[in-house]
Amino acid sequence: MPAYMGEDEVIKKNMALAQEKIYTTDYIENLPENVRAELIDGQLFFMEAPTTTHQRLLGFLHGTVWSYIREHKGSCRVYPAPLAVYLTKDNRTYLEPDIIVVCSQDKMKENGCLGAPDFVAEIVSPSTQSRDYLLKLNKYQTAGVREYWILDAKKATIHVYHFADNTKYTYGFEDKAPLNVIDGLVVDFSEFEL
User: pTM of this prediction?
Assistant: First the structure.
């Protein structure tokens, strides 16, 4: 006689099955426009709506980088989220970083960035924290991103990873942080009001 499976056990079993499913970029690309998700090695992560602090920080960093590039007639371009990044050649990874800088415009297509951006910034939220600090850090490094920033408004910190020389720096929101992929650009976070 089969054992009766309680409601909690059914839910756990269904959650485990959902986690075992491997998703592809086809699935992401067919989601409704108002649903945002990312894909890391076939695992699907739905994204919550950003907070106002997140959006202000995104606007501050994007505006600072954009203005500097424009003023210095740079060849790199900065793109804010949401913009698709097809980080690897397989169809199991699709990301929407908060900000990317791309210096080789042949990577840019109408549907997003094909390959590793030169610079990526992620603004931490409670639901993305473990992905930003662990999964994405590893994916960006192995894909060839040159510089990765993790901005945490709650802790008022910016973690800067330079993958070429395997160094890491931590700055506060009262500091100036150089963005090394763009010569001479220093972001003065004291100008951002938390």
Answer: 0.87
